[in-house]
UniProtKB/TrEMBL annotation:
Signal sequence, start to end: 1-19
Pfam family, one: CHRD
Occurrences of domain CHRD (ranges): 23-144
Protein name per its UniProtKB record: CHRD domain-containing protein
UniProt keywords, alphabetically: Signal
Transmembrane segments: none
Coiled-coil region list: none
Keyword Signal part of the UniProt annotation: yes
InterPro entries the record matches: CHRD
Amino acid sequence: MSRPSILPMLGLGCAVAMAAIAPAQARSVHVTGQFATEHGATTTPGGGVTAWLNPSTNLVTYTMKWTGLSGKVTAIHFHGPAGAGQEADVLAPVGGPYVSPLRGAVLLSSEQARALMAGQVYVNLHTDAYPNGEARAQLSAQSR
């Protein structure tokens, strides 16, 4: 009488157990937004924000490009939570010097990262002529 080998069953059991305890590999979330005027600015800004959110660490790496502003950028901030046309507090300031293209990273809290993935975060560019913000890019997660 032939006895079934226990090795294949043992191997399958180990594979299932390893899959259950292995950390999930989080995929980065691609986020984009295009700059448009805000606060009554009469300029025609161009460019936008391309960013990647690492959902495991909440680190956002970004590239921002802009054109068509009234002058030099004096400050840049991530704001939220707020939908299009709404305003919100600063979530994270962006360090200078403010030269396009600008690359960097900001660390968000888990709550802020959820707001980013829900389209509730925007970036605005401040200038001397528009100290409250001349251009705004509402960020939205892109599907893969």
